[in-house]
From TrEMBL:
<dbReference type="InterPro" id="IPR001753">
    <property type="entry name" value="Enoyl-CoA_hydra/iso"/>
</dbReference>
<dbReference type="InterPro" id="IPR014748">
    <property type="entry name" value="Enoyl-CoA_hydra_C"/>
</dbReference>
<dbReference type="GO" id="GO:0004300">
    <property type="term" value="F:enoyl-CoA hydratase activity"/>
</dbReference>
<comment type="similarity">
    <text>Belongs to the enoyl-CoA hydratase/isomerase family.</text>
</comment>
<dbReference type="InterPro" id="IPR018376">
    <property type="entry name" value="Enoyl-CoA_hyd/isom_CS"/>
</dbReference>
<dbReference type="Pfam" id="PF00378">
    <property type="entry name" value="ECH_1"/>
</dbReference>
<dbReference type="InterPro" id="IPR029045">
    <property type="entry name" value="ClpP/crotonase-like_dom_sf"/>
</dbReference>
<keyword id="KW-0456">Lyase</keyword>
<protein>
    <submittedName>
        <fullName>Enoyl-CoA hydratase</fullName>
        <ecNumber>4.2.1.17</ecNumber>
    </submittedName>
</protein>
Length: 267
């Protein structure tokens, strides 16, 4: 399988069928631009078809797991229907392609994990976070519904009460707290993050692949059941990109100030 077409992702092969998907460039916090967002959707299909892959580790760079979408990407979604429609499809594909990828996916989460990158971190089959990692779903802070993954999986992981608390407030969650509430599989000291991820991936790659993949497939039927909930959330997120709240939220990010959202709502 040739992965040379990917520009924002690097695929690193290890022994035993373990591969790393490394997001972003050395020395920088990974972010998703127009091309990168699409690559995050496509990579899981290619890895699923690759006969030399058994287990996937997905990680960011030393500065963190993900900084979310670029301001250019968000701005173009606000202004242009075609961009908004394309990102809607890619957001759905990221989630469904990870669910349907037969290979086990392990995420190694360090530093900030925001936006589409957070979706990848939490949709992984096993999520390992550094204790001081910072998980942030900032959709409502931007002025759009939390749509790119949260509705399909947060209530299953940490329960509805915690899901509403953190998604409605866009509050930051440490890796340690994320483990406590069940949002991630485990939290470890930062220096042990990649070693732990590699050890787990090694155990999985040495295991019975058919049994592991069919177990994943069966468990993920809980997520497939929630597909209509997820589809609705993504559609409402995209609808929000046409409204006034996201314009204020985006302006506040660009101007590095707190947003002042318009009062009231149409319904």
């Amino acid at each position: 399988m040739d992965y040379s077409r990917y520009t924002s992702l690097q695929v690193v092969r290890h022994t035993g069928g373990v591969v790393e998907v490394v997001m972003g460039r050395d020395g920088k916090l990974p972010v998703a631009d127009h091309a990168g967002h699409g690559e995050l959707a496509d990579i899981w299909r290619d890895l699923d078809r690759d006969p030399e892959v058994s287990v996937i580790i997905v990680r960011g760079q030393a500065k963190g797991f993900s900084g979310g979408g670029t301001l250019e990407l968000v701005g173009d979604m606000v202004e242009d229907f075609e961009h908004r429609a394309r990102v809607w499809k890619e957001a759905r594909d990221i989630v469904y392609n990870m669910i349907n990828c037969s290979k086990i996916i392990v995420s190694a989460i360090n530093g900030p994990a925001v936006g589409g990158g957070l979706a990848v971190a939490l949709m992984a089959d096993i999520s390992i976070a550094a204790r001081d990692a910072r998980l942030i779903d900032g959709h409502t802070r931007l002025g759009v519904a939390a749509g790119d993954h949260a509705a399909i999986i947060w209530p299953l992981l940490c329960g509805m009460a915690k899901a509403k608390l953190h998604l409605l407030l866009s509050s930051e969650i440490s890796g340690e707290e994320a483990e406590r509430i069940g949002l991630v599989s485990m939290a470890v000291d930062g220096e042990a993050l990649m070693q732990t991820a590699m050890e787990i991936a090694g155990k999985l790659s040495a295991g019975p692949q058919t049994a592991l993949r069919w177990t994943k497939h069966s468990l993920n039927n809980w997520l497939r059941q929630a597909g209509p909930i997820f589809d609705n959330s993504v559609a409402l997120e995209m609808l929000g990109f046409t409204g006034p709240e996201v314009r204020e939220g985006l302006a506040a990010v660009r101007e590095r100030r707190s947003p002042v959202f318009p009062a009231g709502a149409p319904f």
